[in-house]
Amino acid sequence: MKPKLTETGHHQLTDRLAMLRRERTDARERVRTARKFCDFREDVTYTEAVRQYVRIEADILELNRLLDDATIVESVQSEVVTFGNQVVIREVQQEETERYRIVSEAEADLERGSISVTSPLGRRLMGATMGQTIQVETPGGTIQVEVLHIEP
Predict the structure, then answer these.
(1) What SS3 string covers 70-136?
(2) In this predicted structure, what is the pLDDT of residue 41?
(3) Using N-to-C axis directions, what is the helix angle for 44-69 and 7-36, rounded to 10°?
(4) How far is CA 130 from CA 5, 9, 45, 90, 114, in A?
C-alpha cells in the first residue's frame, strides 16, 4: 500500500530532506577531519562522526523512498472523519476542546496538532461523525471523546 501524505506534510518532509542533505555535507567533513587525527581503534570523535553520518544517510534514504512512493491526499469536507481532516474534539465531562489533524505516521507531530492515523485516538476518530462520542483506550485508561467539528 502506498503511503499517504497531506500536502503540508509533503512540504515539511521535503524541507527536512533538504536540511538532512546540508547536514550530510557537514557530517562528511567531520568524518574527514576526524580521520586525519585518529588511530581508528579507540577514537571516540571519529566513531561518533561516522555514526552521525550513517544515521543521516539512513534518514535521507528513508525520506527519499517515502517521498517517491507517497500519494498526496487532499483533505475534503466530509460528514465523517477521513485522512487529512482537522477534528475538534472534547473529552466528555471536560470543557476544553482539542484540535488535531489526522495524518500519516511520518508527518505526525503532536506539538503542531497532528496525530497519526494509526495512533489509538487517530484510529478511533477515522469514520466518526460530528456529534458522535467514541471510546479511546489510552495508557491511563479508557476515555470518551466527542467529535465537535470536522474540517478539511
Answers:
(1) CEECCCCCCCECCCCCEEEEEECCCCCEEEEEEECHHHCEHHHCEEECCCHHHHHHCCCECCCEEEE
(2) 63
(3) 150
(4) 24, 25, 56, 12, 19
| Cβ-contact 114, 103 below 8 angstroms | yes
The pLDDT value recorded for residue 107 is: 94
Closest C-alpha to 87, from 50, 46, 128, 54: 128
Backbone phi, then psi, for 41, in 5-degree steps? Answer: -95, -50
Q: How far apart are CA 33 and CA 16, in angstroms?
A: 25
- Greatest Cα pair distance, the chain, in angstroms, is 67
- The distance in angstroms from the start CA to the end CA of the chain is 23
How far apart are the C-alpha atoms of 134 and 121, rounded to whole Å? 9
Q: Are strands 4-5 and 114-116 parallel, antiparallel or unpaired?
A: unpaired
Predicted TM-score of the model (pTM): 0.80
